[in-house]
From TrEMBL:
Residues 1-147 form the PTS EIIA type-2 domain. PROSITE patterns: PTS_EIIA_TYPE_2, PTS_EIIA_TYPE_2_HIS. It holds the Pfam family PTS_EIIA_2. This is PTS IIA-like nitrogen-regulatory protein PtsN. Gene3D superfamilies: Mannitol-specific EII, Chain A. It comes from the Bacteria. InterPro entries: PTrfase/Anion_transptr, PTS_EIIA_type-2_dom, PTS_SugarTrans_NitroReg.
Length: 153
């Protein structure tokens, strides 16, 4: 696993959502269930960051991220949408993968390193294709875990 953030198997899902706000709500609920956080607080933090500008960075990927109180290390949740959604991405393309990142409130450089690690992973076209074609969330988690191990080497 990547030393910059934690991604638990239960935080990887495949789902169908109607739009960007539903996607952020779903990611918030996953973080709440998996890491013992308050879903409404997570969603508020993600929405606050989203107001600064869309976290849809292109190629069908969004990286919603925020810093928040009550966590001790960067944590992540990964979702593949059965049907791509409009996310106001930089390239105008719909999003089919979203990876949320939450870091401790005071984690300046730590947050940036975790975000950079996620960004590097999601910029890899072959890796994105593998995630899109994975049969289920368990297979997606395996790809991320193996990809992170490779990147750490």
């Amino acid at each position: 696993m990547d030393p910059h953030f934690t991604l638990e198997p239960d935080a990887v899902r495949v789902t169908r959502v109607a739009d960007k706000s539903a996607a952020l709500r779903f990611l918030s609920e996953i973080c709440a269930e998996t890491y013992g956080l308050d879903a409404k607080e997570v969603e508020a933090c993600l929405l606050e960051r989203e107001e600064l500008g869309s976290t849809g960075f292109g190629n069908g990927v969004a990286l919603p991220h925020a810093r928040m109180e009550g966590i001790s290390r960067p944590i992540a949740a990964l979702v593949r949408f059965e049907h791509p959604i409009d996310y106001d991405a930089a390239d105008g393309m719909p999003v089919n993968l979203a990876c949320a990142l939450l870091s401790p409130a005071n984690a300046g450089a730590t947050h940036l390193h975790a975000l950079a690690a996620l960004s590097r992973m999601m910029r890899d076209e072959h890796f994105r294709e593998q995630l899109a074609e994975a049969p289920d969330a368990e297979a997606m988690y395996g790809l991320v875990a193996n990809g992170q191990d490779r990147n750490a080497a």
